Amino acid sequence: MLRGLWPALKDKTSGSLVFLVVISTISIGLLYGAGLMWGQHTHISVMEYWRWWVVHLWVEGIFEVFATAIISTLFVRMGLLRVSVATTMILFATIIFLGGGVLGTFHHLYWSGTPISILAIGATFSALEVVPLLVVGFEAYSRSKIEHEMDWEINYHWPFMFFASVLVWNMIGAGLFGFLINPPISLYYLQGLNTTANHGHAALFGVYGMLGLGLMLFCMRGLTDVHQWNQKLLKISFWSLNIGLAMMTFLSLLPQGLWQSYASIKHYYAYARSAEFMHSAVMEGLVWARVPGDIVFAVGVFAFAIFVYQAFTSKQTSSVTTTTEQLETP
Asked: What pTM was computed for the model?
């Protein structure tokens, strides 16, 4: 990876952006190593501390910096973002991670005997992690409105659409749904219920899944012929994935979590997680309410897979045709 990025690192105009991408990428591997800090007989409070280093600092910290860095770099390449704004936002994200990332982890540690004041600090810093990526997104959106006649709109339309959905789901899944379960009073009643699963689904695929698909499309521009892309399949895939994910969360996971939260507050936490409650008529019905969203989401997955297959096979066909014509030319 470093060998491929080395020429870009020497570029004085965008070298700082690429350097931050490299640093965040390396950190993803390093932070995962926190999972090796406990063993079979480690005390549960110590184990919980290091486990949340992996879950929080790895996923919600370093990955946020990586997402901000890579999207900022691509937005600069598209002409949608100034280098100064991009660099500032990445550094802002890094400062929040380094300065408050460890503090932000503490909102997970309710059952480890962590004091309420520390939990409150953790919830506050954890919620701030989504700010830099949103600022980058609003800046890019504003410039795209002004510069709507630029050539990038045709060539980068779908990568930009997937990156835009990253920003939306980052605000909803990581920001709104995440902060719903972050405050200490929420942690007491809601941690480990379907409110957590709701946050995980919306934030994981909504942010990193859409980011991966957007990066894939960006790379495919150099590997395939953009003019032969099946725009209809891409449109179906994009909207099916987003609508399906929204249906999963708002029709099933979020209502399940809220119903469990009501039971946890009215009765007690263990009751909201008991087999009796989980297999009640309401909860079973909300589980089945996820099926329509899953079907819509699956349509998006198959549409994207077919699009990728067609994009690469059409390029191979055109290459074969060109080669044959060259051989037949006297």
From this structure: 0.77
